[in-house]
Each structure stands twice: as structure tokens, then as C-alpha cells.
Design brief:
This protein is α/β, with parallel strands linked by helices. Helix content is about 25%, strand content about 20%. The chain contains twelve helices and 26 strands. The longest helix is centred in the middle third of the chain and has 19 residues. The protein starts with 17 loop residues before the first strand and ends with a strand.
């Protein structure tokens, strides 16, 4: 356990907190340091694990492996935990939570604010991710969590470093693979595991805010070629596919999570650093481990398909009920997958609040159980494939305040190519606007510092008079990656903005990375008007030193940051799309 928090006296090695209980044969959490040793109840698993991947103890203290070693061979022989100082525990009464006179006379020290070391353990599936406050001090615990994790080598996609100095993008993939006890009866029991639920978790560079972007499984998109690692170490290129559902970016034709990462990158233009993937069991086991998740329903639900049976108002759900809640699609809204995504986001927000509650943060037993369940359910990329690396990542991600985590779904419309639409396609304008905001690291929440900075930048850009659209004269060159970008921009300016004095000058002399607008001092009002129309950043405006004469036009050169006519280069300061915050409870309708 953490040397600066629960369960440790000064100058005592963290590994000493886990000792062999001679009555059970298991390593358990030591709760006292003087007088007779007492032990946490058997619901706190030993740091060496149960010997079975994913095994956890039940709340009543009778785990799946009980007092055995996980292989049914009876009590395990006595052995030392790595790093333990060999102190032999004495038999003694069990103290209540290791505090007060009953626990060997040790006084309970008041916990100082800010001394709890937080870490983030991710899980996915329909709940996508949870924040778990976890303190790990002993080598044995790291080794145990390492053995829980499954990893996939995704080759050249992703970030080989655990964290980044810039924004972080973590793709959470929930598969529809029916593994685990009791999951065979859910739909297609033979599924190889497709990308059923997908959330791109974007954490800002300054770690003040995060955007959780849900990507519908029924989104029609293009899946690029991807290179996968085979079991024998060889590589195999899986050919790309055009105009197909997003969910087949995983599992279909042998595609691995790296293929899903590449697909998300192509859709959003964002670099995906890591992935985390789980199946149905994560929802059931983790919701149980945390003691249940509070949900609210605007009306009573009794769904024969998902078997969800809950009354109107607030309920606390776990296990099969939790899975039914996040799987149901016929009880809310218009019974679409998009409405199910809203319900899932509400569940995730509630789970986050529960994970960060004092009830969870101050319970070593609950923390261990949550971490054990979460890591047992996880499959991650090799770059974060150890407990220690996950904790390093957690230190960065857990800096985000819950109130600044915003849930949003990729803006979509019904597929126009289907007579009776079942699938969806990206909204032609709002999707590009949202992705541009995320690429520019623009917060969707009211983070004070960013709001002030954005307002200052906008004021500086728009300060002063702006010319009428009919008076703006500009020549447009294409120095970006989009073919025909100059003509598309001129068409948009003339038809949508009324800038009739705009001219297509075809390709620029060379490719450039950033869009620029060159103008003369006496064209400043025109530059401000065009910048406001196109969403150009202040850095794009290049003022000359000599005034323009006659009909001389400004020069707009599109760069690699140009994503389409009418798409702001910097992303809009705000966007009109539905969104929710992780710190607010809402009722499913």
C-alpha cells in the first residue's frame, strides 16, 4: 500500500502490510503494528492473487477460490512476499478496520488532504472506462496486476511512450465477445468480438479537461489497410474496406485493435496513443466490486429482451442488472443505438463519481478488489502493458476534475443511401467542427483558464471594424492535402458567405503545413472579416508593410491544417451538439 496513506506506520516497508494469516494460509492486509496482529477480512485478496485470471472474492468473504491457492489444492504453503521483512504474525483478535483501541491501541491518524496518491485504471465494454483510485507500493502487487493484463502488439500505430507532453488520446473498446460465465446467451455467442462500444478519451495538454467521444458502432466509414502481428511473430496486412460499419474494424477478417485505432485516426484526424479493451464481464464484475452503481430512470422499465426490470426513479445496480442497463436499446428514446449510447454515458458518469467517492478512496479492500477486477478484464497495447506503466498513465489522466469530463457522441445523420436507415454517416458540418475542436485541444467544458484565453484570442482577432462580405477581395491558393481545396473554398465563400470577389488560383508553389492569409495594412478590415468567416487563428494572419493599390487582392494559402470548405481551422469556440458532464446525474428517458 502507499507509504503515505492508509495502513502504514512510519518507516515500515509497504510489503510488510501484506502478511501470511496462519489460519487461512493466505496473504492478507495487516491492520496493526503493535500488540497482536490483526487482519483484514478475506474479502481483501492476497497480493499474489488467486492463481486464476480474473478471480475475485465475493462481498460475503467467500471467494471463488476461498482459502485455497486457486487450483483447489488446499491452503498454500507459507512463503514470503517479495520485499517482506520476515515478521511472523501472531494470532490475535481482528480489529475493526485497523483503528481505535480494539486494533492494538493504535490511534487513527487524520488523513491529510491531497496525500492520497490517485491512479487511473481503465476498463471498457459498454461502460468504457472508470476512474479507480489505487495505491500500489509493493513489488508483489505490481507482479500480480501484470499477470492479470493481456497485451497486443499494435506495431507502428500508437505511442510507444506511456504518456506525452501534449494531449493524450486513449481509445476504449468494448467488444461483443460473449466470453465469461453467463454471457453465452447474449445475442451472437459465436462473435469474434467486434468494436461494439467505442469511446475516444481525449485529455487536454494542460490536463484540465477531457472529452469522451462516443463513436457509433453503426457508423458507415472507410477502414484503412492495417498491419497485424500473428502468433508466430510474422506480420500480415489486412486490406482496407470502403463504406462499411465501424464495428467491423475489429475482429472481422482478423483485424486487431490496431486496425480500430487506425480507423479512428482516419475519421477524426487525431493521433490515438493507446487502446484499452474489455468484454461483458467488466461491467458485471466491476459494478459489483464497487458496491453498485446509482442510476436514475424517468419511467419504470421491464424489458424482456435485455431483462432489465427497474422502477421509476433511482436504483443501485450491479452484476447482471448493470449489464442489462447498458445493453438495453428498446426502453429509452427511439430505441436506437444512439439512445443506448446516451444511457451508457450516464452509467459511466455515475461509475466515475462512485470510484472517486470517499467511500471508495478510503477503503484499501475495495481499492484492491477494483484494481484486481479491472486489470483482469483489460487487454491493452504493449506500451502500457504492465501495472507500473498503467499507474504512470493514471497519474496524468487522474489530474482531470470530474466536472471537466464531457461526454459527447460523434454528430451523425441517417444514412441517405438506405431506404429505411439502419446505419448512420457523419454529419457533414458538425462532425468536422467537433473533430477540429479536439485537434486544436479546445475544451468542451467551461474551464476558466481556457475560457479566458480563448476569449482574449477572439477579442484580438475581431477587434476593429470588419469589411462587408461584398468588399472582401481574396485570391485562394491550395498548399494543403485536399485535392481541389482552392475551388471548394471559393465556391463556399461565394455561395455561402457572399464573398463574390474571390478567385481560385489553383496550386500554391509548394505545400505548407499551416494556412496563411497575407494582407496589406489598408486591408485589415477585409482580413478580419475573412478570418471570422473561416475561423482562422491570429497566427495565420500575415500583415505586410505596404498598402494595397487598386484591385489588389489578399492572398489566402490553404495548408495541411485545412480540412474542408467551411470547417474552421482552429475549431469553433463552441458547438451546438448534445453533451453531458461526468459530475451531473441524469435520468434515462
Amino acid at each position: 500500500m502507499d507509504a503515505q496513506s492508509r495502513g502504514r506506520a512510519d518507516e515500515i516497508d509497504p510489503a510488510d502490510q501484506w502478511v501470511l494469516n496462519p489460519q487461512t494460509g493466505d496473504y492478507e492486509l495487516r491492520l496493526t503494528q503493535s500488540g497482536g496482529d490483526s487482519y483484514r477480512t478475506p474479502s481483501a485478496p492476497s497480493p499474489r492473487g488467486s492463481g486464476r485470471r480474473g478471480a475475485v472474492r465475493d462481498d460475503d468473504g467467500e471467494g471463488r477460490s476461498g482459502a485455497r491457492d486457486g487450483r483447489g489444492r488446499g491452503p498454500a504453503p507459507r512463503r514470503e512476499v517479495p520485499g517482506q521483512r520476515g515478521r511472523r504474525p501472531a494470532d490475535g483478535p481482528r480489529g475493526p478496520e485497523g483503528s481505535g483501541p480494539e486494533a492494538g491501541g493504535r490511534r487513527k491518524r487524520k488523513q491529510k488532504k491531497g496525500r492520497r496518491k490517485k491512479a487511473l485504471i481503465w476498463t471498457g465494454g459498454v461502460m468504457a472506462f472508470v476512474l479507480v483510485a489505487l495505491s500500489i507500493g509493493a513489488y508483489a502487487l505490481y507482479q500480480h496486476f501484470n499477470s492479470n493484463l493481456s497485451t497486443v502488439d499494435v506495431g507502428d500505430v500508437g505511442n510507444k511512450n506511456v504518456t506525452s507532453e501534449g494531449p493524450l488520446n486513449i481509445l476504449i473498446i468494448g467488444t461483443d465477445k460473449r466470453t465469461g460465465k453467463g454471457n453465452e446467451g447474449y445475442g451472437d455467442k459465436g462473435s469474434t468480438g467486434h468494436a461494439d462500444t467505442n469511446i475516444l478519451f481525449h485529455v487536454s495538454k494542460d490536463r484540465t479537461n477531457a472529452t469522451a467521444l462516443s463513436i457509433p458502432r453503426d457508423l458507415i466509414t472507410n477502414i484503412p489497410d492495417c498491419t497485424t502481428k500473428q502468433p508466430d511473430g510474422t506480420e500480415k496486412v489486412i486490406p482496407g474496406t470502403q463504406d462499411i460499419r465501424f464495428n467491423v474494424s475489429l475482429g472481422q477478417d482478423g483485424r486487431d485493435p490496431g486496425c480500430t485505432m487506425r480507423t479512428v485516426e482516419e475519421i477524426t484526424g487525431l493521433k490515438v496513443d493507446h487502446f484499452m479493451m474489455v468484454d461483458f464481464n467488466a461491467v458485471k464484475e466491476l459494478s459489483t466490486a464497487v458496491g453498485g452503481v446509482k442510476v436514475c430512470l424517468a419511467h419504470a422499465v421491464k424489458d424482456p429482451k435485455s431483462h432489465l426490470d427497474l422502477p421509476e426513479g433511482e436504483s443501485t445496480i450491479q452484476g447482471e442488472d448493470a449489464l442489462a442497463f447498458v445493453r438495453t436499446r428498446h426502453s429509452f428514446g427511439n430505441e436506437s443505438d444512439l439512445d443506448r449510447i446516451k444511457v451508457q454515458q450516464q452509467f459511466i458518469g455515475s461509475m466515475i463519481r462512485q470510484m472517486k467517492s470517499d467511500d471508495t478512496l478510503t477503503s484499501p479492500t475495495k481499492l484492491y478488489k477494483l484494481a484486481n477486477v479491472a486489470t483482469s478484464a483489460l487487454t491493452v497495447d504493449s506500451a502500457i502493458g504492465t501495472g507500473k506503466k498503467l499507474v504512470s498513465l493514471a497519474k496524468e489522466l487522474s489530474k482531470v476534475d470530474t466536472k471537466n469530463i464531457t461526454f459527447v457522441t460523434a454528430p451523425v445523420i441517417d444514412n441517405p443511401d438506405e431506404p429505411r436507415p439502419i446505419t448512420v454517416v457523419l454529419h457533414p458540418e458538425k462532425a468536422d467542427q467537433l473533430f477540429a475542436m479536439m485537434r486544436e485541444d479546445t475544451s468542451l467544458t467551461e474551464v476558466a483558464a481556457q475560457k479566458k484565453a480563448a476569449k482574449g484570442k477572439q477579442d484580438a482577432l475581431l477587434k476593429g471594424t470588419k469589411a462587408a462580405a461584398a468588399d472582401v477581395r481574396v485570391d485562394v491558393f491550395n498548399g494543403g492535402e485536399i485535392s481541389g481545396g482552392a475551388q471548394k473554398t471559393v465556391t463556399w465563400l461565394q455561395n455561402e458567405q457572399g464573398v463574390l470577389k474571390s478567385t481560385n488560383k489553383a496550386n500554391a508553389p509548394e505545400k505548407i503545413s499551416k494556412t496563411t492569409l497575407a494582407y496589406a495594412p489598408n486591408q485589415a478590415d477585409q482580413a478580419r472579416a475573412l478570418a471570422a468567416m473561416m475561423g482562422l487563428p491570429g497566427s495565420a494572419l500575415k500583415q505586410g508593410t505596404v498598402d494595397a493599390e487598386g484591385r489588389q487582392a489578399m492572398v489566402l494559402t490553404l495548408g495541411a491544417d485545412f480540412k474542408g470548405a467551411g470547417v474552421p481551422i482552429t475549431g469553433p469556440a463552441k458547438i451546438d451538439i448534445p453533451k453531458t458532464s461526468a459530475d451531473k446525474a441524469e435520468c434515462a428517458k
